[in-house]
Design brief:
The protein is an alpha+beta fold. It contains nine helices and eleven strands. α8 (187-197) packs across α9 (235-254). The longest helix has 20 residues, at 235-254.
């Protein structure tokens, strides 16, 4: 019996809940941050306080923020580092409650690691304007728990260790080289990823990051994610996957 492409999609196994949360983390460029309003706040101390933040992730998908000490959420974190981030994967759905969303919980701490800052600014290039201000700093979340709702009845509590991916230090050390090479020498391949493999319009898509599971793209205020077929550990492995993807895109474009 030969299975059609449509049948294969229908019978394809659903991703594991932890993989779904990690995919949301990697694909999201913003999140709702919930902190506890500090005890000395003149406004509603002790209440949950929710705010919109721009999001990037470390190479293992741990959340990274760039926030100001002038903001209430940062003052709350200085008093109590516990926080939650709501990731919304329901955009564009006719029935949003059938889509995936996840709450990632943990503790946010300031980071002086240069890679965290570089990943954030690559994801959000406009943040360069204020990233150097004295009141701004990079914060990284140590993920402890996650709660996934992936549609009606598809509800899961997960340990943080299960949600995060395996780091790939050899690739992280060469990430900027890979990204620069793709944008400077293979902009046509990046365009094919966006247009053919992801079905996105617009000219000028650029790669902003690469990790063991895929690559991040951006055009203006739009972001996208292209997944690798196989996890990679270093720049050579990333090259193999990127070449595989562009060959697939060229084949599809020629059909």
């Amino acid at each position: 019996m030969v299975m059609s492409d449509e049948d294969a999609k229908t019978h394809a196994p659903s991703p594991a809940p932890a993989d779904t949360v990690r995919a949301l983390l990697r694909a999201s460029d913003r999140a709702t941050l919930a902190t506890l309003q500090r005890a000395d706040s003149p406004d509603s101390p002790g209440y949950p306080y929710a705010s919109l933040v721009l999001l990037a992730v470390d190479d293992d998908a741990a959340p990274i923020l760039l926030i100001s000490t002038l903001a209430d959420h940062t003052r709350n974190l200085l008093a109590d580092p516990r926080a939650s981030l709501l990731l919304d994967g329901t955009a564009g759905l006719d029935e949003p409650l059938t889509g995936a969303r996840a709450t990632v919980m943990g503790r946010l701490q300031r980071s002086s690691t240069s890679r965290h800052r570089e990943r954030y600014l690559a994801r959000h290039p406009s943040a360069v304007i204020y990233a150097g201000f004295k009141d701004f700093a990079v914060w990284r979340m140590t993920v402890e728990r996650a709660h996934l709702v992936a549609g009606f009845g598809a509800i899961h509590w997960l340990d943080g260790a299960a949600v995060l991916g395996e780091p790939a230090p050899a690739l992280a050390a060469r990430e900027a080289d890979v990204v620069d090479h793709m944008n400077e020498d293979h902009a046509d391949a990046v365009a094919l990823y966006a247009r053919v493999l992801l079905g996105l319009d617009g000219d000028g898509w650029a790669m902003t990051g690469v990790d063991r599971e895929g690559a991040d793209l951006r055009l203006g205020g739009r972001v996208a994610r292209i997944a690798f077929d196989n996890p990679v550990e270093d720049a050579d492995g990333a090259r193999v996957e990127l070449v595989r993807l562009v060959k697939r895109a060229r084949t599809m474009a020629a059909e």
